């Protein structure tokens, strides 16, 4: 090919490319909310929509913090934790991509400080219960989770793995040779529902529970049936009032059974996906006695758990262990996480589920 032909060919390619470009049509999308900075409350529904502006077809995707969450024109999202979320929408056709990114700020729930309530936790950072008979109503909703801020109240954590994350307005000191926290409950002598307690120090000083959780090693720690790094995936039932199927990280399966006393869905209404997974430590269940199916009992463990001892559970920060199960020395803690520790059906009394009626700095309790 000589130089002249080469130039001519080049010009032809250019004009073809330009012709193609003219016909290119990226997705034309109208977003329901155009404000890209949004403030949302924990437990509150955020609905985001994206509509085609020209009726052309394209594929859609919503991502929450880089995880694909939905592939329709509407995203429903209820945050269960405080923090900053990036929600990205993309519409893609063969010509390219339309993208819209929201930054969603979810603040912690807080109560005002005063000398009367300083002993109690005053911040709620996260409420992520397991399924249960009281979920989606009191005491298994976000209002209940807020009911223990600055005072006593009651919240249930649902079946195994359900948890709540709370904060104090001051550092709770690890006093030598004595317990430091008291966790109020609704346990009685034959009906403990032990929950594992985790503590965190605000190591980076930013006021947020984004540091390291340390498990409080209670009396069942490392006994047969105890397991760290255990997880359970719960699946949305159909219809939604059916028992909730679960599968654990050991391959076991079961259901969170429903009963006739509570007819609402036991699957948290704010979970938008069809499954969700909770992770933590599993406690032994040898304390449960099923001899009389009409009166299944659960005796308390010796020490170190929530919803275990009638009158309140005293927790010693000195019992904290790291992810390998080794003791750690913490001078003080700022945050507490409480998590249902046993997966069990208690017959007509429903699923074993830890209740928290209050969390206080024991040094401030008269
Ligand atoms: Ca102590
Ligand atoms: Ca922090
Ligand atoms: Ca319970
Ligand atoms: Ca209880």
Strand order of the largest sheet: 9-10-12-24-14-15-23
Number of domains: 2
Q: Secondary-structure element sequence?
A: HEEEEEEEEEEHEEEEEEEEEEEEEEEE
Low-confidence stretches: none
The tally of beta strands, per DSSP, is: 26
Strand content: 35-45%
Q: Look at the helices and sheets and give the structural class.
A: mainly beta
Largest sheet, in brief, is: 7 strands, antiparallel
Write down the overall mean pLDDT.
Answer: 94
Radius of gyration: 26 Å
Tell me, briefly, the overall form: elongated
User: Share of helix among residues?
Assistant: under 10%
In a nutshell, what does this entry contain?
The chain has 366 residues and is mainly beta.
What does this structure look like?
The protein has two domains: 29-107, Immunoglobulins (Immunoglobulin-like); 109-364. It is 7% helix and 37% strand. It has two helices and 26 strands. The chain has helices at 3-23, 142-146, and strands at residues 29-31, 37-41, 46-52, 59-64, 67-70, 74-77, 83-93, 96-107, 109-110, 123-128, 155-156, 163-173, 181-184, 195-200, 213-216, 227-235, 244-248, 253-256, 275-282, 288-289, 297-298, 313-315, 320-321, 332-340, 355-356, 358-361. Strands 9-10-12-24-14-15-23 form a seven-stranded antiparallel beta sheet. The relative contact order is 0.18. The model has no long low-confidence stretch (mean pLDDT 94). It binds calcium ion (4 copies).
Sequence-ordered SSE layout with sheet pairings:
Elements lengths: L2 H21 L5 E3 L5 E5 L4 E7 L6 E6 L2 E4 L3 E4 L5 E11 L2 E12 L1 E2 L12 E6 L13 H5 L8 E2 L6 E11 L7 E4 L10 E6 L12 E4 L10 E9 L8 E5 L4 E4 L18 E8 L5 E2 L7 E2 L14 E3 L4 E2 L10 E9 L14 E2 L1 E4 L5
Parallel strand pairs: 2-8
Antiparallel strand pairs: 1-3, 3-6, 4-5, 4-7, 7-8, 9-10, 10-12, 11-25, 12-24, 13-22, 13-26, 14-15, 14-24, 15-23, 16-17, 16-19, 17-18, 20-21
One calcium ion binds next to loops.
């Amino acid at each position: 090919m000589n130089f002249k032909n080469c130039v001519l060919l080049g010009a032809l390619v250019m004009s073809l490319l330009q012709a193609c470009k003219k016909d290119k049509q990226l997705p034309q999308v109208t977003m329901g909310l155009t404000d890209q900075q949004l403030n949302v409350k924990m437990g509150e529904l955020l609905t985001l929509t994206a509509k085609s502006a020209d009726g052309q077809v394209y594929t859609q995707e919503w991502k929450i913090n880089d995880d694909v969450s939905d592939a329709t024109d509407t995203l429903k999202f209820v945050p269960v934790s405080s923090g900053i979320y990036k929600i990205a929408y993309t519409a893609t056709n063969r010509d390219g991509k339309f993208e819209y990114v929201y930054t969603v700020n979810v603040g912690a729930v807080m109560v005002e400080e005063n000398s009367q309530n300083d002993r109690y936790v005053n911040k709620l950072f996260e409420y992520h219960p397991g399924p249960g008979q009281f979920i989606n109503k009191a005491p298994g909703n976000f209002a209940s989770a807020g009911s223990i801020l600055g005072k006593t109240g009651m919240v249930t954590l649902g079946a195994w793995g359900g948890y709540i994350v709370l904060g104090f307005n001051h550092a709770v000191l690890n006093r030598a040779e004595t317990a430091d926290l008291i966790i109020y409950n609704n346990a009685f002598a034959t009906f403990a529902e032990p929950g594992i307690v985790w503590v965190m120090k605000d190591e980076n000083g930013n006021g947020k529970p984004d540091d390291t959780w340390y498990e409080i090693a209670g009396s069942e720690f490392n006994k047969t049936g105890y397991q760290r790094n255990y997880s359970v995936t719960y699946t949305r039932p159909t219809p939604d009032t059916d028992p909730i199927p679960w599968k654990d990280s050991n391959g076991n399966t079961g259901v969170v059974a429903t009963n006739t006393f509570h007819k609402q869905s036991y699957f948290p209404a704010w979970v938008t996906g069809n499954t969700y997974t909770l992770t933590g430590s599993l406690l032994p269940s040898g304390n449960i006695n099923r001899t009389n199916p009409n009166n299944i009992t659960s005796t308390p463990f010796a020490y170190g758990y929530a919803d275990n001892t009638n009158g309140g559970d005293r927790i010693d920060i000195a019992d904290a262990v790291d992810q390998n199960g080794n003791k750690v020395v913490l001078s003080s803690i700022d945050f507490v996480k409480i998590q249902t520790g046993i997966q069990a059906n208690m017959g007509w009394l429903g699923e074993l589920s830890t209740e928290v009626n209050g969390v206080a700095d024991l040094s401030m309790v008269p």
